[in-house]
Amino acid sequence: MAEKVVDIQDLEYWYMQGTPMEVQALKGAHFDVYRGEVVAVLGHTGSGKSTLIQHLNGLLRPHKGHVRVLEYDLTDPNVDVKALRRRVGLVFQFPEAQLFERYVGDDVAFGPRQLGLSREEVRERVRTAMNAVGLDFETYKDRFTFSLSGGEKRRAALAGVLALRPEILVLDEPTAGLDPEGRRLILNLIRRLKEEWELTLILVTHDMDTVAEMADRCFVLADGRTVLSGTPREVFAHPEVLRELALDLPHPTEVTHRLAATGVPVRPDALTLDEAETAIRHVLANGSANT
Fold first, then answer.
1. pTM for this structure?
2. What does the DSSP assignment read for 77-116?
3. What is the per-residue pLDDT for 150?
4. Residues forming a β-bridge with 31
5. Which of 67, 84, 134, 152 could anchor a disulfide with 148, C-beta 3.0 to 4.6 Å?
6. Which helix (H) or strand (E) holds 192?
7. How many C-beta neighbours within 10 Å does residue 272 have?
8. pLDDT given for residue 70 in this prediction
């Protein structure tokens, strides 16, 4: 059985705890990830998704509950958070805002330099990471970060995280703000990085089609609690619950659910366009055979 690399149980967290402005963001959430998986975290704005993932590399520490990431117990006040952050990379929504150095190469090199690596090893990590995200090292290393396009900035920020050589990569809304072509390119890049870098991926997303295409399992949060979990097919089998939480179905699943609701004997749980097409063709073929 694969190694469990994230284990979160009964997690509670408050912002501005002990003040009149106190807000409880997590109210007993649970979440787990096994090595090599792609796991999606779903939920409407304010559900607790961002608070949850900030516990994964120690940006936040649990107030109650259990959080273990790799061999690090985040409830231990003496845990080596710096060591954890070298192994868990977190790319925030609109990661281009993470860029702060003047030159692209220096920005990607920032993390490796903090590790005390030699100049040659830092340079090699930067070269490998930039080339991996499609930013040719020789072409882009001396470019001004502000001169990059939006898509290039996103890839540069991702390269900066990859240069730390993480085992777990957390991506917060990786397709946010992208047109269909940009979405396709970033998802293909993520797939390739997962295989070539042997990454465990955690995706926080509102894009249900991305979940259907990529996730092995998913967790749905609402009001700081985990309310659904399972494979995408298992989670999307509860459309009424998801709609109550202001969450959509993947487009192919929405189509087959609607057809099934009108009495068409179609498989309602298609996740991809290919599955929906196959299900509809099956109905049409059987209908033709019975006439």
1. 0.90
2. TT--HHHHHHHEEEE-SSGGGG--SSBHHHHHHHHHHHTT
3. 81
4. 8
5. 152
6. helix 180-197
7. 15
8. 96
Domain ranges in the chain are: 1-95+168-176+200-248, 250-291
Per-residue pLDDT, 291: 41
Q: Are residues 187 and 213 in contact, defined by beta-carbon separation less than 8 angstroms?
A: yes
**Taking the chain (291 residues) in consecutive chunks of 10 residues, what is each chunk's mean pLDDT?**
93 93 96 97 93 95 96 95 93 80 94 91 96 95 91 90 95 85 88 93 92 95 96 93 92 90 88 89 73 41
Domain 1-95+168-176+200-248, what fold? Rossmann fold (3.40.50)
Specify whether the CB–CB gap between 268 and 257 falls below 8 A: yes
Measure the CA–CA gap between 37 and 66, rounded to whole angstroms. 21
According to DSSP, the residues that pair with 218 across neighbouring strands are 40, 230
- Kindly give the pairing relationship between strand 38-42 and strand 64-69: unpaired
Distance CA 228, CA 30 (A): 10
Strands 200-204 and 217-222: unpaired
Query: In the sheet that 4-15 helps form, which strands lie side by side, from edge to edge?
Result: 23-34, 4-15, 64-69, 72-73
The Cα 152–Cα 149 span in angstroms is: 5
Beta carbons of 236 and 200 less than 8 angstroms apart: no
- By three-state DSSP, how is residue 19 classified? coil
CA angle 265, 266, 267 (to 5 degrees): 125
CA pair distance 127, 253, nearest whole angstrom: 41
E strand spans, the chain: 4-15, 23-34, 38-42, 64-69, 72-73, 88-91, 168-172, 200-204, 217-222, 225-230
3-state secondary structure of 175: coil
